[in-house]
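debug: dumping io for the single-chain case to check the tokenizer round-trip. Nothing else runs in this session.
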Amino acid sequence: MVVNRLHPAWIAVFFVLMLGRPVLAAGVAVFPLLDLTVSSNGVSYVLTDNVRREIAKKGVQLVSDREIMQFLVRHRIRTLGSLTSHEIMAAGRELQVELVLQGTVCQLQQSPDPAVSLTVELIRTSDASVVWANTEALYSSDLTSLLGLQDPENLNDLYAVFFTGLLASMPTEVVSSSTQKELLDIDSVILMPKAVRPGEKVRCKVRMQTMDLGNGLRPGLTASVAGRDYPFALDSEGYYFVADWPAQNTAGRYPVTLKALWPSGRKETVVLGSYTVDDRAPDVALYLRGREVNGRIFFSDKLYIVPTLTDPEPVSRWQVMVVDRDDQVIVRQGASDRLPDRLTWRGRTTLGALAPDGDYTIVFKVWDRTMLSSSVAKEVSFRRNPPQINLELQTHGDRITVKLNKEAGMPLAYWWLKVYEQNGRLAKLSEGEHLPATIEFERPQGENDGRLAGLLVARDILGNVTRKKIKNLLGQKREDGGGEVEMEKEWLEEF
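debug: decoded output
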């Protein structure tokens, strides 16, 4: 019997070669892309789907969207684009993948010129090392041809070129970690709150895959924050390691690092996450879109209320109120959500009743994640009543004089007066933009009994309209009230 044996030196060489041998990725988990063009926690599922489709063309097995979403919920991950090392390794174990791809949308513009910019990185789950990264930007002008043929008109036209270039150099094979780092087998981390005021308590809870490591085998754990260490202790249920400490007095973002000291003297460190110390209330500004007259905002139909933060930050809730001159709140509305892009007040109370004409105060209040609040107030005037027009008529023989005057109210956009003979023929047409006005004309001659009818229309700058129908215009001059005069006023949405 002949036994072939390799020399020990050849065995060592073979072992080294095997350690450095590229292996096909067992799978890739493409996490939803962080979209900074929306907010600090925005997500772009459209661009994520495009990345997934491009990677699938390379023949790489992808983890399903459903499995990734369940992982995010299970680990309470709300901020994407910057997963921690223990989250990366947890994804490798639970999703059974060799690689994780995460990224950030830096620019996404539909008009006037389409543009897209992305940063992506491919991370090895065994040791949380970045094995590939790329940043790509594409503008419509980059694809504009000399003759203007087939030039991109929207973002979809850019995507076909963009994602191919973004992922062209992405490897489908990675080198396995020859010396995998010995890291703590962390199952989950709870760091709360994510935003805190100076001096308030911060709590970190860490759960290991195996909590009972036996006597003498459990490492000493401390949380390191801003140069200070805070010890972890096992809770009464034996479920979590817990550490508490007061938030720093200086505003900023503070990373939390877990330090482990094993009985053997071996040390390990893992970044658990970070929190923000906020010592300043949000600075909110308020813009009212109506008709400005002498520095004051007026409206009759819709008032657009636009709140903005001068220094954008996540908010926990907001509230808007409409207060009348008696300091009574007639409208109150709010939500636990991000700031609305725009609100519309149509001049009605919370119960749906039409508010009376008058002056009101719009108050907008906002709370940030630490419940620090600020508010801003602006005055507005609601005017829905149509213009009040007085008509006075005088006759001197065959000469007729009509005087028009406006009572107090909003400035007029226009007015016009039509005078008709009994047979329907137009006897006089006058129009203008300002009152008072005097209109003179001769009494029509012909086959009629001298009766005249009138139609007066006036519209103010807010859109309120008055119509006066006068069946017997000459009847207005009689002191005994004789003559039939019918007046009709109505609000017209569009006239």
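debug: round-trip ok. The CA atoms of residues 31 and 68 lie 7 Å apart.
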